[in-house]
Amino acid sequence: MFLLAPFVLAAYGVVVFALDVSVPVSAPSKAPTVSPALVSFSIEQDRWLDWAGSTSRNEFAYNAFNNLKEITGTPPWIRIGADSEDHTNFNPRIQFSQTKFPAETATVPYPEASNITVGDGFYSAVAHLPPGTHVIWGVNFGQANLTAAYLETRSIVKAFDSPAVREAGITLDFIEIGNEADLYINNGARNSSWNIQQYVAQWTTFAANVSAAAGINADSRVKFVGAAFAESTRTTSGFSPQSAFKAGLLDSPSGAQVKLISQHHYSGSFCSGSGGLLQNLMTKATIRSNLSSFSPDITATHAKGLSYFLGETNSYSCHGAPGVSNTAGAALWALDYALYSSQIGVERTHFHEGIGYKYNLIQPATLNRSILDGSPLSTPLAPHIQPAYYSAIIVAEALGDSGSTQVYEISVNNTRIAGYAFYEGGSLQRAVFINSLAFLKGATSRSSTHLLLSFTDGSAFATMTIKRLKIGYADDTSGVTWGGQTYETSDAKVSGDLDVQVAPVSAGVDIAETEVVLLTFGS
Ligand SMILES: *[C@@H]1O[C@H](CO)[C@@H](O)[C@H](O)[C@H]1NC(C)=O
Ligand SMILES: *[C@@H]1O[C@H](CO)[C@@H](O)[C@H](O)[C@H]1NC(C)=O
Ligand SMILES: *[C@@H]1O[C@H](CO)[C@@H](O)[C@H](O)[C@H]1NC(C)=O
Ligand SMILES: *[C@@H]1O[C@H](CO)[C@@H](O)[C@H](O)[C@H]1NC(C)=O
Ligand SMILES: *[C@@H]1O[C@H](CO)[C@@H](O)[C@H](O)[C@H]1NC(C)=O
Ligand SMILES: *[C@@H]1O[C@H](CO)[C@@H](O)[C@H](O)[C@H]1NC(C)=O
Ligand SMILES: *[C@@H]1O[C@H](CO)[C@@H](O)[C@H](O)[C@H]1NC(C)=O
C-alpha cells in the first residue's frame, strides 16, 4: 500500500503520510558488527579534572558515562586531549593542574586554555572513570617540545600502572601525539613550510621517544593513534591519512604501532544559530554527505589493516551553534550521525565535550554564565545533561548488551526518515526510526508518517514494543523524554515510569516530525 495523498485525522488536525518499509529479518552479509561504545567521548583536557574530579570522583559525570555501561555492558571510550593537549606541559611540583584561560567572549563563553601545566594527579584522576573504560590520551606536539611530551607520557604510564586504575580495569589503549597538526600553520605552532613530510618526520621523532617512555611495541597493549587531523584533503597530497601513509607514517618501528586513524569532523562552523541551521544539521542527506565524503580515507586506512574512527566530532565548531547544538534536534542529528558512521566503516564516534560548550551531551560542572552568550546567570546551573545525551542512550539500547550486534541501514524512501535494524546472532531484534523534519517553535501543524512494516525474509514477527523519544519542539533545550522517562535529573540517573506500547506489527507505527521510535520485535 502506498498512499500518495496525505489524509487528515480531523480530531487532531494531524497530516499523516504512509510509507512502506521492509526490514530484513536476517542480518544482511554487509551489516557491520558495531562497537557497543559507538557513541563515545572526547574531552577538552584543560578542564579534565572537572569531569573526573581531582580528589574524589565527579558523581554526575560518572553516572552519565556509567548509564551507558549499564545498558551495553561496556562504558564509552574516553579520549582526553584536543586543542589544549598542545598547550600542556608537565611539572612534577604541581599536584593537579594550573590553567590560564583567555578572556571569555559572547561567542566563546568558555574558551580553551592558552596554557596548562599538569602534575601526576592530573593523570591519576583517570581512576574516577567507570571500571573497564578504554582511554586515549593526547600529548603535546604543537609546542615542539619533546621534553613536555616525554614527561607527560611518563606520568600517564604511571597513572595507568597505579593499583586503583589497574583494579578498575581502566586501560590506556592509545596515545595521540598532537591535535589537528594540519592546522599548525594557522595557529602559529609551525611556520609556513610545514607539510605532511615534516609532520611525519617530526611525529616519528616524538613517537620513538614516547614509545620508549611508554613501552609501546608489537607486544604492548598501548598503541598509537595516527593523524587526528581537523580536515582531510581525501587525496595522497596535503594532510590526509593516505598522504601520511605515503610520506611514511607507518614505516618506522614506532609508526608500525599506529593501529587506529583518527579524523576530526564538524558539520560546519557557526557562532550564531537559527531554525534553518538546525534543520540543515538534522537533514538526512547532509549527514550522509558529510560522512561519506571521508570514504576514500576510510578505504585507504582499512587497506593498511588499521581501524578508523572519528576521534573528535560534534555538530558545529565554535563549541556549537547557540539554539542549535544545545537543542533536542541535535539529539536526532547525533543519533543518525553515529549510526550512519557505523555503516561506512567508522569504529566509534567520539563526541567532543568541554565545560560549558553548547554542543555538550553532558554538562558535568556547575555553570555560572550562559553557554549561549556568556552572560552571568543569576542562579548557577547545576550539572545536567543536554538533549543530545539521549542519542547516546538510544544507541546503547538499540545495540543492547550482546557485544556483537550488527547494524544495517534500512532503505527508507523518504528524505526525512532514516531507519536502522539491529541483529543479534544474525537475527533481527530491534529497529530505530528517526524523523528528522524539524518541528520548530511557532509551527502549528505537526505531520506524522505511518510506517507500514514488512519483513523481507524469514518468518515475520507478530508484535513489537514501541518506545518513543518525545520532543516538544526541535529547538527545545529540555523536557525531552525517552519512553516517558527523563535523564534531566540532578544525578544523571534515569527517573520516572517507563511508558512503552505493545502493538501488532501489522498495525504499523506513527512517527511525528522530530521524533524517534525504537521498536523491539517479539514473536
Ligand atoms: C605556561 O605557564 C607556566 C607556569 O606558569 C610557565 O612557566 C610557562 O612559561 C607558560 N608557557 C607558555 C607557553 O606561556
Ligand atoms: C626522550 O626525551 C627526553 C627529553 O628530551 C630525554 O631525556 C630521553 O632521553 C629521551 N628518550 C629517548 C629514548 O631518547
Ligand atoms: C619544554 O618543556 C620542559 C619541561 O616542562 C621545560 O622545562 C622547558 O622549558 C620547555 N622548553 C621550552 C622551549 O619551552
Ligand atoms: C620553518 O621552520 C623550519 C624548522 O624549524 C626551518 O628549518 C625553516 O627554515 C623555517 N622556514 C621558514 C620559511 O621560516
Ligand atoms: C555538512 O552538513 C552541513 C549542514 O550541517 C552542510 O552545510 C554541509 O554542506 C555538509 N557538508 C558536506 C560535505 O556535505
Ligand atoms: C561556578 O562557581 C562555583 C562557585 O564559585 C564554582 O565552584 C564553579 O567551579 C564555577 N563553575 C565553573 C564552570 O567555573
Ligand atoms: C519513492 O517515493 C516516491 C514518492 O515520494 C515515489 O515516486 C517513488 O516511486 C518511490 N520509490 C520507490 C523505489 O519506492
TrEMBL record:
It comes from Plicaturopsis crispa FD-325 SS-3. It holds the Pfam family Glyco_hydro_79C. This is Unplaced genomic scaffold PLICRscaffold_18, whole genome shotgun sequence. The keyword RNA-binding does not apply. The keyword Cytoplasm does not apply. Gene3D superfamilies: Glycosidases. InterPro entries: GH, GH79_Enzymes, GlcAase_C. Keywords: Signal. Residues 1-18 form the signal peptide. Residues 419-518 form the Beta-glucuronidase C-terminal domain.
